[in-house]
Specification:
alpha+beta; 2 helices; 2 strands; 43% helix
């Protein structure tokens, strides 16, 4: 089984898991090393997204809502 991550220019992560499946149709049991690798990759993608600045259009929208009394 292999796990590939694809991060678009907008930092949207897509996870692709390929490989054989068991008789129930689910993925084969992963080894501890595979689970660690998946966890590390997910953490890396998550950290990249968290470190991004709030887009300017969202800042404008939040400012407009606050001006309209949406901060109650």
């Amino acid at each position: 089984m292999s796990v590939r991550f694809h991060v678009t220019s907008k930092k949207v992560a897509r996870v692709f898991m390929t490989g054989p499946t068991d008789k129930d149709g689910g993925a084969d049991k992963k080894s501890a090393g595979q689970k660690d690798q998946i966890g590390e990759n997910l953490k890396r993608v998550y950290d990249d997204i968290i470190d991004e600045e709030v887009p300017e259009r969202f800042k404008i929208l939040l400012r407009q809502l606050k001006e309209q009394g949406g901060d109650k």
